Amino acid sequence: MTDLRSDTVTKPGVAMRAAMAQAAVGDDVYGEDPTVRELEERAAELLGKKAGLFFPSGTQSNLAALLSHCRRGDEYIAGDIYHVYRYEAGGAAVLGGISPCPLATGARGELAAQTVAAAVKDDDPHFPRTRLLCMENTVSGTAQDLAETKAAVAAARRRGLLAHLDGARLMNASIAQNIPAKKLAAPFDSVSLCLSKGLGAPAGTVLCGGKEFIGKARRNRKILGGGMRQAGIIAAAGMYALENNIERLHDDHQLAEELAQGLAEIAGTNGATVSLGTNMIFYAPAAADHSPLRHHLKGCGVLVGDGRPAFRMVTHLDVSRKDIAKTVAAFAKYYKSRKRR
Q: What mean pLDDT is predicted for residues 223-250?
């Protein structure tokens, strides 16, 4: 199967598995795993922060960040399509008593500075205390404009807010814009970097920020059950990813562009639309074609996302140029067969 559902489906290759097998390990809850410490230091350096903390997942790292920045009764601001608000089971509210304030994002997933400023509550007992701005990069594959990001964070800081970045795919943004990751991360007090998406590790996220913040996050990681023992086996995969799989994101972006171009030629005559951002393609077929097209693609050995009205296709290190050609051919075959009926 050609699996385009997400870049989370990647599998560790031979070299990454060898690094995992050879990893030096210790008890990370005691702070004694050398490979975990090396990964945390490397990620913090990459993002221009003082310290890092290894987590099993990005969702847990974002939740620990919110718990570390906010108290019960506080509020965080986030885009209404951002992962931390929409796809993390309401964890901040459920476990932290932290209220979300979702804001409408622009066409590229951005939050405008004036929108952020207008959302901050006055110091009034009727309202939760607005404490934190959460942003995301990339947003549905779209790399965020650095000047707009800085403006939004500056607007939040003028009202005394802290700022957290869900940088699950931050390296895709860095590569696409040719901007160092630490420059994209600089406006924020904390940043989470996922290792198990385009970077290809089987699990793990590193949360980075100041030393005091990471101390709080370590306690919250324990509360959330995220403390692991000989975690260096997993961390070694993350180290391999940071050392070998950042620059190769260029390949994913190139393949995504080729796929989008191939599908655009097909879509134009069949009432469909195609959009592209870094390693993500969104294909919106005519409503009547949505389910039968996905079923047809699966029969051709191509798995795609199930979103509506557009389904998502994501290129990653397990997708080849041959897979792209196979996918375009499968789309063409569907429309050709439909015309015969």
A: 98
Instruction: Check the CA dihedral 139-141-145-146 and report its sign.
Output: positive
Q: Considering the entire predicted model, what is its pTM?
A: 0.96
Question: Where is the domain boundary, 192, 222, 244?
Answer: 244
Q: How confident is the model at residue 79 (pLDDT cuts 50, 70, 90)?
A: very high
Closest CA to 144 of 99, 100, 177: 177
Per-residue confidence (pLDDT) for residue 340, from 0 to 100 = 62
d(CA 282, CA 269): 17
Domain harbouring 330, CATH code: 3.90.1150.10
Which pairing describes strands 51-55 and 273-277: parallel, antiparallel, or unpaired? unpaired
- Rounded-to-integer distance, Cα 114 and Cα 98, Å: 23
Distances from the Cα of 156 to the Cαs of 72, 114, 227, 310, 328, in angstroms?
20, 10, 32, 33, 44
pLDDT per residue as tens digits for the range 8-35: 999 999 999 999 999 999 999 999 999 9
Give the residue numbers spanning the domain of 124. 11-244
Q: Give the CA-trace dihedral at 59, 65, 66, 67, to 10 degrees.
A: 110
CB atoms within 10 A of CB 277: 22
Domain count, the chain: 2
Two structure tokens written together for 268: 């134009």
